[in-house]
C-alpha cells in the first residue's frame, strides 16, 4: 500500500512557485481531510523508516498500543512493541518488506505500553519515493484480541466437549435423519466392537445386528416426526464379533443440528450387572424364605411331638431337643448373616479389636467340628503362624468358620479338608483346601459378590444364600487383608486369606 500524504512543509508545495494559491489551499484541505480520516479509523496506521523508527502514528495506534504520538515518534518499534519470542518473526518480515517482497497480512502478538499482550492483525508494505527508492514501511494493524479470546474460548469449550463425549462411561452416538451415524464416542465403539471411525457415515443397520437395528430404525423414524424421546431396555447382542447377549439401556432423543438438519442423540448403557444383581436379589428372597421356613417347620414338628406325646422315652426326648437346637442354630446363623449384610450396607460393620493367638483360635474352631456328627470330614492343620493378631476376634472366627463350612458343604462324599497356616513376618496366611466340586474360572470372579450363587445342576444339594463369601470378603477388607481362590472344577478349591500383621499391631 502506498500512502502519500501531501505535507505542509513539503518542498514541492512550498517552493513550487507555479502552484497557485487556490491549489495550495486545496492541498491543505485535502491533507487535513486525509489526516482526519486516518485518525478517525479504529485501526492503527503508522509508518517507520527502514530501520523501524516510527515516522507517523495515528490515534488508532495510540489506542491499540497505548503510546501517545509524542512518546513513540522516532523510537524503534522492535524495542518497544515486539515481545522477545516474536523478534525473529518480526525481523524476517521486515527483511522481506525491505527486499520489496509482498508480505501477506499476518496475525501476531505485540506488547502494549502497559506490557499487556495483544493479538493483532498486520498488513505491512513498503513505501517508495517518487523515484522508486524504498524509504520506509507502512503498517495497518487491528486489535484482534477479543476475537482471539472468543476463538480460544470456543476451542477450549469444544475440546472440553469432546473430552466429555469421548471419556463418558456411557455409549454416545449422533445419528442423522437418514439413520446414518455422524459420530460416536469411544465407549460406544467398545460396546459394539467397531472402530470409532468405522461408524462415520454408516447406517445403523450396518453397525448393529438386524433385530436391534430394525427396532432402532423404527424408533428413530417416529422420533424425527414427533420429537419425542424414547428409553428402552433390551437384552441383545450389540457386538457382532463376541455375540454376547447383554442388557442395554438405550435412550434416543431429538436433536436439531440445524433447522433443515434434524438428528438423533443415542445413549447406551450396559446394565447387565445391575440386572443380574436385581435377579440375584429376587432369587435371594425366595431362597431366604425357603431357608428360614425349613428349620421353622422342623422346630414346629418336634415341639408338637414333644407337647402331644407325654409318654415319650427320655432318650427320644433328648434327641428331639437336640434336633430343635440344631435347627435354632441354623436359623440364628441365617439371621446373623442377614444382620451382617444390612450392617455392611449401612456401613456400620464396626470392629472391636483385641489381641489373640491366631493358631489357637483356628484349633478351637476345628475342635468344634469333631463333635458334629453330620460332618464326616477330617480337618488337618499344617504349619503354624506363631503370631498374635490384633483384630476383631469374632469376625476372624466367622471368616475361618465360613470358609471351613463351605469346604465341607461343597465337597460331599469327600473325607478330608486341609488347613495351611504360615507367616512371613509381615502377613499371616491361612488357606482352606477341599477336594470337592470346584468352581469354574468365570464363577471364581463372581463368588465374592453379594447374593451370588454358582448355578450347578446339583444345586439343590447345597442350600445357601450367596452371602457367606461376601461377608468374608468384607471382614478381610476391614482388616486390610486379601482373599483369593484357586479352583478346578471336579478337583476342589483353595481359599486363601492374608492379613497384614503390622496393621493389626497398631
Ligand atoms: P452360599 O451360601 O451360596 O454357599 P457363599 O457366598 O458362601 O454362599 O458362596 C457363594 C458361592 O460360591 C456358592 O454358591 C458356591 O457355589 C461357591 N462356593 C463357595 N465355596 C465353595 C467351595 N469351597 N467349593 C465350591 N464352591 C464354592
What's a quick, concise take on this entry?
By secondary structure, the protein is an alpha+beta fold. It has helices spanning 11-15, 21-40, 59-65, 69-72, 77-81, 87-98, 145-167, 186-192, 196-199, 204-207, 210-226, 272-308, 314-345, 358-370, 393-409, 441-444, 468-478, 501-505, and strands spanning 44-48, 54-57, 106-111, 117-128, 134-143, 171-176, 181-184, 230-237, 245-256, 262-270, 354-357, 378-382, 388-391, 416-423, 427-433, 482-488, 492-500.
Keywords:
single chain; 506 residues; alpha+beta; five-stranded antiparallel β-sheet; 17 strands; 45% helix; 24% strand; elongated; binds adenosine-5'-diphosphate
Task: Please tell me about this protein's structure.
The protein is an alpha+beta fold. About 45% of the residues lie in helices and about 25% in strands. The protein has 18 helices and 17 strands. The protein has helices spanning about 10-15, 20-40, 60-65, 70, 75-80, 85-100, 145-165, 185-190, 195-200, 205, 210-225, 270-310, 315-345, 360-370, 395-410, 440-445, 470-480, 500-505; strands spanning about 45-50, 55, 105-110, 115-130, 135-145, 170-175, 180-185, 230-235, 245-255, 260-270, 355, 380, 390, 415-425, 425-435, 480-490, 490-500. Strands 2-1-5-4-3 form a five-stranded antiparallel β-sheet. It has a five-stranded antiparallel β-sheet with strand order 7-6-10-9-8, with helices on both faces. A hairpin with a 4-residue loop joins strand 6 and strand 7. Helix 12 runs antiparallel to helix 13 (about 315-345). The protein is elongated, with a radius of gyration of 43 Å. It starts with 10 loop residues before the first helix and ends with a helix. Bound molecules: adenosine-5'-diphosphate.
Amino acid at each position: 500500500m502506498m500512502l502519500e500524504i501531501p505535507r505542509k512543509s513539503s518542498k514541492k508545495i512550498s517552493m513550487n512557485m507555479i502552484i497557485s494559491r487556490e491549489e495550495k489551499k486545496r492541498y491543505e484541505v485535502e491533507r487535513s481531510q486525509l489526516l482526519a480520516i486516518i485518525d478517525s479509523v479504529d485501526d492503527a496506521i503508522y509508518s517507520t523508516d527502514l530501520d523501524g523508527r516510527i515516522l507517523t502514528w495515528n490515534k488508532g495506534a495510540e489506542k491499540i498500543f497505548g503510546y501517545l504520538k509524542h512518546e513513540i515518534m522516532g523510537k524503534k518499534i522492535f524495542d518497544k512493541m515486539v515481545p522477545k519470542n516474536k523478534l525473529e518473526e518480526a525481523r524476517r518480515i521486515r527483511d522481506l518488506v525491505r527486499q520489496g517482497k509482498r508480505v501477506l497480512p499476518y496475525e501476531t502478538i505485540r506488547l502494549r505500553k502497559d506490557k499487556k499482550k495483544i493479538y493483532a492483525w498486520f498488513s505491512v508494505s513498503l513505501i517508495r519515493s517518487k523515484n522508486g527508492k524504498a524509504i520506509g514501511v507502512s503498517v495497518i494493524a487491528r486489535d484482534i484480541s477479543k476475537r482471539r479470546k472468543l476463538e480460544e474460548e470456543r476451542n477450549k469449550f469444544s475440546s472440553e466437549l469432546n473430552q466429555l463425549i469421548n471419556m463418558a462411561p456411557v455409549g454416545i452416538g449422533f445419528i442423522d435423519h437418514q439413520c446414518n451415524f455422524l459420530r460416536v464416542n469411544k465407549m460406544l465403539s467398545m460396546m459394539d466392537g467397531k472402530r470409532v471411525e468405522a461408524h462415520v457415515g454408516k447406517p445403523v443397520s450396518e453397525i448393529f445386528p438386524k433385530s436391534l437395528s430394525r427396532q432402532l430404525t423404527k424408533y428413530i423414524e417416529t422420533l424425527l416426526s414427533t420429537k419425542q424421546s424414547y428409553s428402552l431396555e433390551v437384552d441383545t447382542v450389540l457386538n457382532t464379533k463376541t455375540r454376547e447377549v447383554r442388557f442395554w439401556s438405550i435412550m434416543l432423543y431429538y436433536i436439531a443440528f440445524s433447522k433443515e438438519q434434524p438428528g438423533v442423540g443415542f445413549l447406551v448403557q450396559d446394565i447387565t450387572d445391575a440386572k443380574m444383581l436385581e435377579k440375584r436379589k429376587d432369587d435371594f428372597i425366595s431362597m431366604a424364605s425357603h431357608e428360614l421356613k425349613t428349620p421353622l417347620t422342623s422346630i414346629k414338628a418336634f415341639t408338637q411331638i414333644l407337647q402331644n406325646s407325654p409318654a415319650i422315652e427320655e432318650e427320644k426326648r433328648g434327641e428331639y431337643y437336640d434336633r430343635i437346637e440344631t435347627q435354632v442354630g441354623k436359623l440364628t446363623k441365617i439371621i446373623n448373616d442377614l444382620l451382617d449384610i444390612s450392617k455392611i450396607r449401612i456401613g456400620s460393620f464396626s470392629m472391636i479389636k483385641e489381641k489373640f493367638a491366631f493358631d489357637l483360635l483356628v484349633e478351637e474352631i476345628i475342635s468344634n467340628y469333631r463333635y458334629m456328627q453330620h460332618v464326616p470330614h477330617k480337618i488337618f492343620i499344617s504349619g503354624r503362624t506363631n503370631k498374635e493378631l490384633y483384630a476383631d476376634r469374632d469376625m476372624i472366627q466367622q471368616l475361618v468358620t465360613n470358609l471351613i463350612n463351605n469346604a465341607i458343604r461343597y465337597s460331599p462324599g469327600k473325607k478330608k479338608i486341609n488347613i495351611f497356616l504360615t507367616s512371613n513376618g509381615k502377613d499371616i496366611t491361612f488357606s482352606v483346601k477341599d477336594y470337592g466340586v470346584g468352581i469354574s474360572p468365570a464363577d471364581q470372579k463372581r463368588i465374592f459378590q453379594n447374593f451370588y450363587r454358582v448355578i450347578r445342576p446339583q444345586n439343590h444339594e447345597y442350600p445357601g444364600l450367596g452371602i457367606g463369601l461376601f461377608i468374608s470378603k468384607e471382614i478381610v477388607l476391614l482388616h486390610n487383608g486379601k482373599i483369593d481362590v484357586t479352583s478346578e472344577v471336579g478337583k476342589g478349591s483353595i481359599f486363601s486369606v492374608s492379613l497384614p500383621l503390622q496393621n493389626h499391631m497398631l
